[in-house]
Structures are given as C-alpha cells and as structure tokens.
Amino acid sequence: MQGFKLAFNYLRIGIMNEFQYRANLYIQILQTFIALATGLIGLNLVFNQVNELGGWGKADLLAVMGVFTITGGIIRSAIQPNMERLMDEIREGTLDYILTKPADAQLLASVREYRLWQNTDVIIGTIVLIVAMSQLGWRMDFWSSLGFISALVMGAIMVYCFWLVITSTAFWFVRVHEIANLFEGLYAAGRWPVDIYPNWLRYGLTFLVPVAFAVTVPASALTGRLSLQTWLGALALTVVLATITRVIWRFGLRNYSGASA
Amino acid sequence: MKRYFDFYTSMMRVSVLEQWQYPIANYFYMIGMLAEPVIYMVVWSAVAEQQGGSVGGYTPGSLAAYYIVWTLVRQMNIAFTPYGWEWRIRQGRLSMSLLRPMHPLHEDVAFFAGWKVVMIILWIPLALVLSLIFKPDLNPTLLDGVVFFVAIWMAYLIRTITLSLLGMVTFWTTRVSALFELYFAAELILSGRLVPLSLMPDWVQRAAWFFPFRWAFGYPIEVLVGNMSVNDLFIGLGMQFIWVFFGAVFVSQIWKIAIRRFSAVGG
User: Fold this and answer.
1) CB spacing of A192 vs B39 below 8 angstroms
2) Residues A130, A217, A228, A239, Cα dihedral to 10°
3) How confident is the model over A37-41, as a mean pLDDT?
4) B28, A181: Cβ pair inside 8 Å?
C-alpha cells in the first residue's frame, strides 16, 4: 500500500516537472507524427505489392502498429527513463542515495522518473488502433477487450523486467548504455507480427526479448487470434520473469560496492 | 599536410585503442543495429515469396545480399550525431576543441574513422553468421569491389558533412530534436535504408537523386549488389565527389558564421 502511495507521489512530481517544459510537448507531437508517417509509408509499400502478409491483412497490421505505438509510448514515458537513470547511478556510484531510504530499492529505482509528453505516442497509438478496429468492423467482444488490456499490462511488465535485468548487468559491466540502442532495435521488430519471422527469430522475440508479448499478443487479442493457451502462457511467463528479475536485482545489489564520489 | 597526416593517424590510433576496450558494448550496439535490416529482410523476403519469387527485381537471395551489405554500409555511416552537437554546445565542450590549433571537425572525422576499423573487425563474424542464415546471392566483380571500397568512405564523409551541418543548427537554437527526426525520416525513405530504392514509387526514386542520402547509403550497396553498368558506377562516384566537395565548402562557410554565435559555457 505504501508502495502505491510512493509511486503515485513520484508520478505526480514527474508530471509537475514536465509541465515546466511545455514546449517539449509540441516537439514530441511532431516526433510522434514523423514516426507514424514513416510507419505508414512502410506499411503502404508492402501493401502496394501484396494483400496480406503471413495471414495478417492491412487493417490487422494497422492494429499491430497501433499497439506498437502505444506500448512504445508506455516504455519511453515510464520504463526507459528510470532504467537509464539507474544505469548512470550504478556507474557513478550514486545509487547509495536510494539504498539508504526506508523503502524497497527496486520500487524506488523504478518509479522516480516519468516523461509525461511521451504519452502522445499512447494517444496517437490509440487513434491508430481505433481506425484499425473500425476498418475491421469492430469485431470484438467483452472477452477480447479484456484479453487485450490484460495482455497489454502483462507485456508492459515483461518489458520492464527485461529492462531491469539488462540494467542490472551494469553492476558487473561498466558501459551498458548501448543497451538502450539494442532494445530499441529489437523492439522495432514489433512493428510486424512475430508470426512472419523465421522460427529462431520468433523464439528470440518471444522469450529473450518479450516483444511478441508486448505487441503481437495484445494485437492478436483485438483481432480475434488470441487463444486461452497463449494467454495463460503469457501469465506464467510474466510471473516467472518478475521472479527472476527480483533475484537478479538483489544479486546485483550485493555486487554493488557503492561509495560514491 | 604532414601535420594533418600525423593528426589523423594518431587520432585514429587512439580511437581504435579506446573502442577496443569495450567489445561487449560495441557488440550490443551492433546487434541493436542488426535488428533493423533483419526485419526489413524478412518482411520483404516474405513479400517476394508471396509474389512468386521476386519483388522490384529482388529475389530473397539478392534481398539478403542487399541487407547484409546494408549492415556494413550502416557501420560506415555512423558519424557524430546532431544530438552530440547539441550536447557539445550546451555543455560548453566546444570551448576546449576551439583552443586546439586544428579545426575541431577534423577531430570528429578522425575519431569516427578509427572507430570504424574496430567496427569492421567486429562486423565480420556477424556478417558470416547472417550469410549462413540468409544465404545471400552476391557476385561482385573486382571493379565493383574497388568502387565499393572508395564509395563507403565517401559515404562516410557525405554523412559526416550533412550531420555536421544539421548539428550546427544548434548554434542558433538548442531545441531541434524534431528537426533531426524529420531529417532522419527523410533519410530512411530516400536513402534505400528502408527498402531498395527500386521498390519505391517512381517519383521517390527520381527525387532521391537530388538528396545526399542515396549517395551516402543506397548507392554503395547497389555497387556491390545491383549489377550496375560501369557507366553508372562512375556516375555515382562523381555524385559522391560533388557532395563531398561542395558539402565541405559549405560546412566551412557556415562554420565561420556559426562560430560567431557561440558563447562558451564553462569547460
């Protein structure tokens, strides 16, 4: 309970902080539109040649793109900023500041930063999704909506776990900033449903980097492709990943010798 | 002249030594970059197969060749980013470089050129793995190879020049990330990075001729992959030379105006 209060307060501070830089909102909107435009161009190029790709039609792929944009917005507003700050603090030895506070260090490290304006991606992604769903004739019911939302949440948790595990490697390796680049590169694979990739890549995008669960699974729920089996698998994997992440984080902390400046 | 030569060789050596210390970081960086072409390759190979074996003149094999050479050209394309310029100016880092007796841009060019040596060495095993998986269809002639070698270094210079020009905008204003993103989007589409330009609509292909992007990216790849005529090979080199020459002149002129705007902040 206290954890929730803490996270909420940090969120509030983060939002207030962002309101100091309102011009950034316009820049962010422009950037979101540029990203959307390039995505649509890519999609159009493909559909100039074929009518469907790996069983996914144009409207289905638009839905994938909507989810891709939404999840990307969540990652860049809430997950990535915290993890990047954590990386810096581990490297510089200033992690001491949160370790000495009377709250769970993992929680503290995960909620301190929030980039409000990155949520333009969430809004635009939702609009894309609505357009896609109307093209699909709104073939969705209560269960598929519930499946979508739960899959989206589980996907976000898995991506968070992935980031935290990778960030924790900063306890051992010094220069891990390239990982942000690595993740962005791999996340871009989510722009297309993972079914179109060769097997080895599909497994990699499912179990090594949870791109499949973050994007393809929620999109499958919306387009009526999600089976109960996959959903249960996602749930199990979320629990397993969260546990592993916790263990690695604590193990990493023991490795941290701190002693800043 | 000797002064420049010495500067470049020592700077490159320093850069090689520095980057060689972080092979894991460099590999992360490269693997992150590999994802992009692999995605394009898979998507377009799927399209080619659905179309009965080829799309825009590319079979899955030649698409594989295109995107594997892509990865090398992409490494060669890395230069100091406009975001780096922004940081450099905001943090007052430029003051230090200005005190040195050589134009600060030489430092960038030499440092990144040295880094490329490390990148190419690290790239080779990755390229072998990609080739084993995707079986590229690649048969360049000796001339193609020679032109390619020249073209990738020219491409590096062109991209350094255009990125420096863009970076210098930060002398006037520091909020330019949207402008940078617009530039990168244009580059993605007009360079042959997203798809080979022959898959683009006609008017995009024609427009691409007049921008630097194609000469810094798509052209070197096509030299090796695209069965170009000898004539086309040299026209491309000529275009690259024009971009490097006029770009360099332009950069030095803008630099003179820009540097007057710079007021140092700490150091």
Assistant:
1) yes
2) -120
3) 91
4) yes
Whole-angstrom distance, CA of residue A207 vs CA of residue B112: 35
Q: Which residues of A touch B170 (CB under 8 A)?
A: none
Note whether B65 and B134 are within 8 A (CB): no
Q: What is the mean pLDDT of chain B?
A: 86
Write the DSSP symbol of residue A93.
T
- Give yes or no for a contact between A124 and A36, defined as CB atoms under 8 angstroms apart: yes
What are the CA-CA distances from residue B84 to residues A180, A198, B180, B263 (Å)?
Answer: 16, 37, 11, 18
B178 shares contact with chain A (CB less than 8 Å): yes
Nearest chain A residue to B38 by CA: give it: A189
The CA–CA distances, whole Å, from B59 to A71, B136, B144 equal: 34, 10, 20
Neighbours of B194 (CB within 10 A): 20
Which residue in B3, B194, B154, B209 sits closest to A38, CA to CA? B194
Specify the DSSP class assigned to residue A129: H
Average pLDDT, integer, range A223-227: 84
Q: B46 near A54, Cβ under 8 Å?
A: yes
Tell whether the model's pLDDT for residue A261 goes beyond 60.
no
> Is residue B108 a contact partner of residue B79, using CB atoms and an 8 Å limit?
yes
Q: Under an 8 A CB cutoff, do A27 and B177 touch?
A: yes
State the SS3 of chain B. Answer: CHHHHHHHHHHHHHHHHHHHCCHHHHHHHHHHHHHHHHHHHHHHHHHHHHCCCCECCECHHHHHHHHHHHHHHHHHHCCCCHHHHHHHHHCCCHHHHHHCCCCHHHHHHHHHHHHHHHHHHHHHHHHHHHHHHHCCCCCCCHHHHHHHHHHHHHHHHHHHHHHHHHHHHHHCCCCCHHHHHHHHHHHHHHCCCCCCHHHCCHHHHHHHCCCHHHHHCHHHHHHHHCCCCHHHHHHHHHHHHHHHHHHHHHHHHHHHHHHHHCCCCCC
